[in-house]
Amino acid sequence: VLLFILVLFLIASIWLSYSMSKKAMIPIQRAYRQQQQFLADASHELRTPLSVMNTSLDVIELENGEDFSPYTREVVSDMKEEVGRMSRMVQHLLMLARSDSGSVEFEMVSFDLVPKVSQWVLAFEAVAHKKQIMITTRLPEEMEIKGDIERIKQLVYILLDNAIKYTSENGTVDVALGSNPKQWYLSVQDTGIGIPEDGKQRIFDRFYRVEKHRSREEGSAGLGLSIAKWIVEAHRGSIEVESSLGEGSTFIVKFPHV
Ligand code: ADP
After folding, report:
1. Which residue, 41, 78, 218, 239, shows the most beta carbons closer than 10 Å to its own?
2. What is its main location (predicted)?
3. Per-residue pLDDT at 37 exceeds 90
């Protein structure tokens, strides 16, 4: 009888603690979901005015560009750069909210990555040129892979954006692609400021920035690499960094052939 009462008591206490923890979870879960929804809605809403601003700047440049004074030309180009940076941040926030809610579908297709990478690199030529940074590429003739084109583009953009952002004038950024029978890889190497030893793992965490002050000036939120890691892992790949302070960094992404 004593044993029976003890077992009954045990069951009752487990049930009680379970139901209490469940009750406590509900408001927390609801608050978390509301926060996620807010993040998704806010970043979605911000995309439209930003794209209007971008188009308006293009129109101004197209219609009046030839009459611009050197000062106005510089102002318009700075504005375009800032709008672009803000759009990327908003896109990162939106991506983050979507990845958390599990609502991102990866569209895996077979395609040749080489012309795509050449095209994506081209999009960074202007900003690199402004800092006198040279972008070089080492690409094979062709490289057929299977993956989500938009997401891989986002990954390359994050790595290139960082490489240029954290490299000072007259530096170089090198983009390479390669493959072996087991896997394919992409590397982005820069001659920039480098990453300290204790930051090498943490840079892939959300909102982590090595130099908070400097990164904020560059308009960074510390989200890019966490999104890059999420994209890589969704393709069952891995991302790592080799870096020496003051000498530069190399980000290497490896993907299995699927
Ligand atoms: P951010 O938007 O701040 O660049 P990321 O998540 O892309 O966010 O990067 C996190 C941090 O890692 C950056 O703030 C920066 O300190 C560091 N970092 C990323 N890429 C590089 C790089 N190529 N060279 C030096 N530091 C880098």
Report:
1. 239
2. membrane
3. no
Please check the confidence at residue 217 and state whether its pLDDT lies above 60.
Answer: no
Whether the model pTM is above 0.90: no
Name the average pLDDT for the chain: 88
- Is the beta carbon of 164 within 6 A of some atom in ligand 1? no
Collect all residues with Cβ–Cβ distance below 8 Å to 230 and sequence separation of at least 6: 99
| Residue in the structure block whose two tokens are 């982590």 | 208
Average pLDDT over residues 121-132: 93
Average confidence (pLDDT) over 110-115: 97
Alpha helical stretches, state H, the chain: 2-64, 70-101, 113-122, 125-130, 149-165, 212-217, 224-234
Strands 183-190 and 172-179, by their bridges, are: antiparallel
83, 115 contact by CB (below 8 A): no
Q: Which atom of ligand 1 is nearest to the CA of 248?
A: 24
Alpha-helical runs (H) found in 201-256: 212-217, 224-234
Whether 227 is in the pocket of ligand 1, judged by its Cβ within 6 Å, is no
For 1-35, the pLDDT digits (tens) are 677 777 777 787 777 777 766 666 667 778 877 77
7 SS3 class: helix
**DSSP category for residue 202:** G
Contact indicator for 107, 148 with CB cutoff of 8 Å: yes
Mutate to test the pocket of ligand 1, among 203, 207, 229 (most ligand atoms within 8 A of CB): 203
Q: How many whole angstroms from 159 Cα to the centroid of ligand 1? A: 9
